[in-house]
Amino acid sequence: MPQYICSQCNKEYDTITADGFCTNQPECEFGTGWLREKGSAKSADDSGLTPLEFGNEAGLCILMMDGSFSMNEPAFPESDYPGTRYKLVAMNAAGGIWSLKSMTHRESAYLALAVFGGEPKLVSIKSVEDIFKEHDTPEALADSIQKTLENETPDARFTNINSAVQLAYEIKQAFIGGDLSGFGGPTDFKPVIHPVVRGSEEREEFIDIPNVRALIYTDGEHNVTSAIKNPFAGDEQSVLITAFIGEKDAKGVSQMQGLACTCPKHGPANGFFLIDSPERVQTLRGIFRMASGASGFCSACLHVEQKGLEITEPESDLEEAGESGAGPAETGVDSENPSDKEESIVDTPAPQSETSSSQGT
């Protein structure tokens, strides 16, 4: 009769292994499961925790991309930046996604790509692994994204933020339910649930955040008759990140700010990003990478990811963080405490060299 059981995958053993750890790889991720005497402690199944078995667990990023006609205008008209907003987005979305190439379990991380104008359109839900199989280079991926924006956006004369956010929310809810088949995606999986400490001046609390992020950007404003509604606002923790491409005094800025989540770790900082100059291109790429890797929510999270534990933001980023209610000095990130680093929920890509991180630009 088996005397030992793995703390993670529940594989049973007659005798304990040489080092006391589970050897059931790849089903049990190396180093995460150890052997316990049967009956001595709760196993993963009855502990209330989700075991890390990537065979049926998944992560999801929903990219809701504005493909309206105005995106074909110069990205930064007052500068020497050579591309349109279509080009800007396509290159940096591809670059952000490409930085996940070193991620393990790429087959379990999914990207839902959608475009919107007057209405939204879900283009595809694919694993990161399949995306890399279909595109040999970040340039090829960028070209594919740009063609999708230019050719598949429904009624590109308009910008319907409501319908875009609603579709993103419906996809998110289906993901949490473990079944994306209604959207052409996988089924019979479990989203990884990541415990996060959400702090405030009054108290701290543990909350569970599903392994999903939704990112929506625009260069305009909601211009259909109905008022903006945000279904994510009713969740215990919104996972909606927003961005605006254009001048900081544009009307669409306040609309996108109002939709953005509050960061659970660095609140009251929120998940809104302003892309108003060529100097913010790396920020745009970082947003796509952060959303695709499900590794954060706000500018402080982004800079922790980009700079390790050293948050050194450009002046424009400092102003943005201040407007959101939390500058670097207020984020609560201790540069000497590694436990304060925001970790990726899907996986943590290996650090990229300057050469590899600049691909696709």
UniProtKB/TrEMBL annotation:
Comp. bias intervals (Acidic residues): 312-322
Disordered: annotated segments: 312-361
Ranges of Polar residues composition bias in the record: 350-361
Name of the protein described by the UniProt record: Uncharacterized protein
